Amino acid sequence: MMRIPCPYCGPRNSSEFAYKGESRPRPEVGSVTPAQWRAYLYDHANPEGWVAEGWYHRAGCRRYLKVERHTLTNEVRSVTPAARP
Amino acid sequence: MAESKAGVAGPVARSPIRPSGAPVLVDGWEHDITPPVCAGLRLCDLSWLAKVSLRASMDGATAAGLAVGRGRAARDAATRRLVVGSGPGEWMVIGPQGQGPAIVAELDERFGSAGELVSVVDLTHGRALVRLSGADAVVGVLSKLCALDFSDRAAPDGTALRSSVASLVTDIVRDDLPATLPTTAPAAGGGPGAGGLAGERSYLLHCERSSGQYLFDALADAGRDHAIAVYGATERDW
Ligand SMILES: [Zn+2]
Predict the structure, then answer these.
(1) Which of A84, B29, B103, B127 is at 20 to 30 A from B16, Cα to Cα?
(2) What ipTM was reported for this prediction?
(3) Domain B24-48+126-237 class in CATH
């Protein structure tokens, strides 16, 4: 079981969150090629180590969060609110 | 509140939760009037209470005006309304039956001209609301369905949380009941029992209307070990 310390709600079970995947820059929609868009959607780095991810606190504050998680140990070292749109 | 039990041909509104006995029509809402069979662990439906959602910036003028922080709930003694800080930039005002439109108008007037985006929506008919009361057994029941710490240290009276209860997204508000039954209207300056007696541990739980019966059944089932009593809400419950 993995716990995510939500900056709004406190430590919560990861089952309260929806996983949104690795955070990386979204290509410019107007000029992106299909290949670039496909790579953005599906080609993940999936490193063994620290990765920055988006998580959505579905059953809590309903905020998007940026989580730094170690993919081997599931240790979470930082959780911050995602930038507001 | 005026309780006219006549004059309406049929039910105008009905809770998503089945009453345990024949319901009585009170101002257009069907009320369960089953008396509680015990004074211990109890569960009642309060879906007919007015519920108004307010959303605004989490640190703007509206937030300052409401003066209820995230994760806290405060009751206004004069209006009997409970203002709940249910999330970042998100509040819920729970009030006596039928006050939804009045609360919306009042919040609109108070915060609509503050110069920031504020949304006020009457969710009375969109949410199911129940009350679970009764000493320490309540914690045992909630702990079967929810992973949070409900101890007095972590979640004292006036705590507001949203979490997963029986796998359902549910708002939980610790709203202890007064230690003694109010005789009629609450007397000015505090009635008997206002002198420091601890209240009875109690929680309000609310979820989407369509999941109300499921939440109610899950709580009733979890409370079976403690001989939970399902009853119709009394004046003390709100
Ligand atoms: Zn949260």
Answers:
(1) B103
(2) 0.86
(3) alpha beta
Of B87, B88, B163, Cβ closest to residue A16: B163
Find the CB nearest B163 among A8, A60, A63. A60
Angstrom distance (rounded) from CA B188 to CA B74: 19
Q: According to CATH, what is the number of the domain A3-21+39-81?
A: 3.30.2270.10
CA distances from B82 to A76, B91, B158 (A): 36, 10, 10
Per-residue pLDDT of chain B in tens (238 residues, 90 and over written 9): 444 455 556 668 999 999 988 899 999 999 999 988 777 899 999 999 999 999 999 999 999 999 999 999 999 888 889 999 999 999 999 999 999 999 999 999 999 887 899 999 999 999 999 999 998 889 999 999 999 999 999 999 999 999 999 999 999 999 999 876 544 444 444 444 344 466 899 999 999 999 999 999 999 999 999 999 999 998 889 8
**Residue A37 phi, psi dihedral angles, 5° rounding:** -70, -40
Whether residue B186 contacts residue B236, with contact meaning beta carbons closer than 8 Å, is answered with no
Q: What is the pTM of this model?
A: 0.88
Residues 23-42 of A with CB under 8 A from B: none
CA distance A30 to chain B (A): 30
How many A from CA of A9 to the centre of ligand 1? Answer: 4
Given CB atoms, is B147 within the 8 Å cutoff of chain A?
Answer: yes
Distance B16 CA to ligand 1 centre (A): 28
